[in-house]
């Protein structure tokens, strides 16, 4: 069984099911990317994995433990870090305070992890005393990812980390995500920029209407003519 | 030169010194309102009567201490009774939260629902305080009344006009500065304080970071109770305690919180002083000040009073309306109500 494994996830927000038997898996040191058209349930699948959506059927396991019934906070304590798509920083607090809040649940001294985050995102070290709300979009995303890393997660979940940033910043963010993968963290992310994301993905999931349409390595999906035509614009 | 100093003495005696004391009291009250708004996201109309309740508890404690012959010498005995007042008020607000607000928080009721609930709490407290201590004026200040008497000031400086500084005025300033410093230290430096700010800033992300919402809410109520009691006791010592007056303080306190930018602690303090000095500055009769400053033939015949003192609540109200129309985020860019 994979490090993170979500099987046959079925459920929605009360009305009709948005997810219908969706399955996802990531190993440590791997990047898994979920792509698909708008309304395919990509973000919903992320929320379901993180416990922000009650599943009607299916289960989620992390490192072999069934976590299907755990609350999001409990999953954070288990080593899951989640970066929401919007409102993912404390705008009125400084960069350093944002990172401190990420380590809120930890009892030990988070200074070492903070140094690692600053090493990964040097610009944050420069702006540590500045309010997160005053930063540029790309820098904010770095704060958001940094905050999630402060819990020392074994699984990092990113909901569209490159939404609204320039192509140059997007490339940089993807480079950082590769560095995060190299530390042995499992990365699960939803991406709007499907082609670029699949290029760095070890696994790719193409989701359509809450169901897995294609599942393969990133490179294989990029090479698949059917995927190219339907989801990558040729 | 002497004329200018005399004018300053009159101004200081009737506007500056009382304004600093009143401003400090309003600032403490507005801080409580702004913190509740920042964390619980509703305008707490019961804050004035929470102040009355806390002050009442402190007065009862003061009477007990006085009867037992315990005092603080030159300082008012009420300072000793302050912890008792804070404890009683803390208990009260935690009870109202447990039995009134918590249910609606779990249901995610609209802010308007919370405002109406707080108005209900306000009426109940209103009655409770009158039932226990009565609707009349209570004076509970004891100890040394003056730090500088007008006559001593005149003898000391040789001026014609005296400047009085009462013990309660200086005490108000000292206590307010200490309380505000402690509050800011708490919010900026402690784990719980940062959790409160994070919760106020972005509730969902705070929950994701593992902040316990019930604890944040509890701590916020405790701080609001302490601020309300301190503000109420200082106001009562400076002037007098009357339940209806405390209910009326709600308007200037809200105006202060909104002028500064609601949800913004520094704004609440600035707003408190803006409101206090506007009230005093616009209702003061400047005849005597002008008498010293202007050459004799120009001396004013009228009182040079812009508004009668009866209109002081209208001033808070007008400032409130103007701020909401022109700059709804307030001076320090708080949240828009």
UniProtKB/TrEMBL annotation, chain A:
Gene3D superfamilies per the UniProt record, alphabetical: P-loop containing nucleotide triphosphate hydrolases
A molecular function GO annotation: ATP binding
Pfam family, one: ABC_tran
SUPFAM superfamilies, per the entry: P-loop containing nucleoside triphosphate hydrolases
Domain ABC transporter intervals: 4-234
Keyword terms: Amino-acid transport, ATP-binding, Nucleotide-binding, Transport
Protein family (similarity comment): Belongs to the ABC transporter superfamily.
Protein's name in the database: ABC transporter ATP-binding protein
Lineage: Bacteria, Pseudomonadati, Pseudomonadota, Alphaproteobacteria, Rhodobacterales
TrEMBL record, chain B:
One Pfam family from the record: BPD_transp_2
Subcellular location: Cell membrane
Keyword Membrane: yes
Keyword hit for Transmembrane: yes
Membrane topology: Multi-pass membrane protein
Family the UniProt entry places it in: Belongs to the binding-protein-dependent transport system permease family. LivHM subfamily.
Annotated protein name in UniProt: Branched-chain amino acid ABC transporter permease
Organism this protein belongs to: Paralimibaculum aggregatum
Lineage: Bacteria, Pseudomonadati, Pseudomonadota, Alphaproteobacteria, Rhodobacterales
């Amino acid at each position: 069984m994979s490090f993170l494994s979500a099987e046959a996830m079925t459920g929605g927000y009360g009305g009709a099911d948005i997810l219908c038997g969706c399955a996802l898996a990531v190993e440590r040191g791997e990047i898994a990317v979920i792509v698909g058209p708008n309304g395919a349930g990509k973000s919903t699948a992320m929320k379901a994995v993180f416990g922000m959506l009650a599943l009607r059927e299916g289960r989620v396991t992390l490192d072999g433990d069934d976590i299907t019934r755990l609350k999001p906070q409990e999953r954070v304590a288990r080593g899951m870090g989640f970066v929401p798509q919007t409102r993912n920083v404390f705008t009125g607090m400084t960069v350093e305070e944002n990172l401190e809040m990420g380590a809120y649940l930890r009892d030990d001294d988070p200074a070492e992890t903070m140094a690692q985050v600053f090493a990964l995102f040097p610009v944050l070290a420069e702006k540590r005393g500045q309010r997160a709300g005053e930063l540029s979009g790309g820098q904010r995303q770095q704060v958001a990812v940094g905050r999630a890393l402060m819990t020392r997660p074994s699984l990092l979940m990113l909901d569209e980390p490159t939404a609204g940033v320039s192509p140059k910043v997007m490339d940089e963010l993807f480079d950082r995500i590769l560095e995060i993968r190299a530390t042995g963290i499992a990365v699960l992310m939803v991406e709007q920029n499907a082609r670029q994301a699949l290029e760095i993905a070890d696994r790719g999931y193409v989701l359509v209407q809450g169901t897995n349409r294609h599942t393969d390595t990133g490179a294989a999906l990029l090479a698949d003519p059917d995927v190219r035509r339907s989801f990558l614009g040729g | 030169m002497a004329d200018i100093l005399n004018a300053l003495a009159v101004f200081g005696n009737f506007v500056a010194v009382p304004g600093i004391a009143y401003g400090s009291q309003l600032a403490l009250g507005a801080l409580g309102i702004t913190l509740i708004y920042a964390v619980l996201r509703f305008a707490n109309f019961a804050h004035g009567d929470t102040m009355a309740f806390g002050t009442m508890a402190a007065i009862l404690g003061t009477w007990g201490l006085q009867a037992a012959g315990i005092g603080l010498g030159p300082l008012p005995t009420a300072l000793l009774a302050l912890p008792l007042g804070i404890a009683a008020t803390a208990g009260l607000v935690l009870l109202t939260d447990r039995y009134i607000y918590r249910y609606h928080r779990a249901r995610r009721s609209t802010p308007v629902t919370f405002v109406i609930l707080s108005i209900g709490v306000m009426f109940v407290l209103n009655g409770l305080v009158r039932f226990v201590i009565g609707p009349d004026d209570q004076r509970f200040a004891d100890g040394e009344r003056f730090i500088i008497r007008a006559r001593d000031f005149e003898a000391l400086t040789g001026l014609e006009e005296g400047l009085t500084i009462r013990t309660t005025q200086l005490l108000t300033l000292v206590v307010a500065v200490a309380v505000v410093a402690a509050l800011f230290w708490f919010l900026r430096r402690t784990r719980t304080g940062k959790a409160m700010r994070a919760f106020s800033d972005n509730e969902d992300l705070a929950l994701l970071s593992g902040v316990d919402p019930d604890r944040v809410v509890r701590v916020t109520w405790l701080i609001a109770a302490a601020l309300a009691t301190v503000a109420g006791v200082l106001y009562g010592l400076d002037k007098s305690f009357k339940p209806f007056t405390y209910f009326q303080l709600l308007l200037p306190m809200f105006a202060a919180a909104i002028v500064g930018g609601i949800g913004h602690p520094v704004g609440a303090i600035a707003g408190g002083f803006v409101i206090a000095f506007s009230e005093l500055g616009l209702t003061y009769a400047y005849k005597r000040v002008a008498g010293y400053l202007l050459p004799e033939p120009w001396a004013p015949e009228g009182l040079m009073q812009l508004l009668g003192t009866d209109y002081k609540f209208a001033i808070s109200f007008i400032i409130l309306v103007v701020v909401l129309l022109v700059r709804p985020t307030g001076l320090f860019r708080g949240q828009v109500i």
